[in-house]
Design a protein that fits this description.
Elements (H helix, E strand, L loop, with lengths): L4 H13 L3 E3 L5 E3 L3 H16 L3 E4 L2 E4 L24
Antiparallel strand pairs: 1-2, 3-4
């Protein structure tokens, strides 16, 4: 599915209201589990619309893709893996 500016606007409106459900431009209704999940989706939409491959999350810049070294479920042994994003 291709994201549109209307989708971003709908998500932003829901975030501004504190709602967890969003009706997108194509008529889909999505209920998100948390604001954090919504912000993650928002970052993906922004990355898609701008074509940057990097999404912004507040003031932090978070790289997208598998090259980030995220290893879910792997033990950290007290230290993060190089490039690991800690949720």
């Amino acid at each position: 599915m291709a994201w549109t500016q209307a989708d971003l606007d709908a998500l932003d409106a829901a975030l501004a209201l504190g709602a967890r459900e969003v009706r997108y431009a194509d008529g889909r209704m999505v209920v998100y589990r948390s604001v954090r999940e919504m912000m993650g989706i928002r970052g993906g939409i922004v990355a898609t619309l701008t074509g940057t491959g990097v999404r912004t999350l507040g003031d932090d810049r978070v790289a997208t893709g598998m090259s980030t070294g995220v290893m879910r479920g792997a033990p950290s042994y007290g230290y993060p893996y190089p490039g690991r994003l800690i949720p």
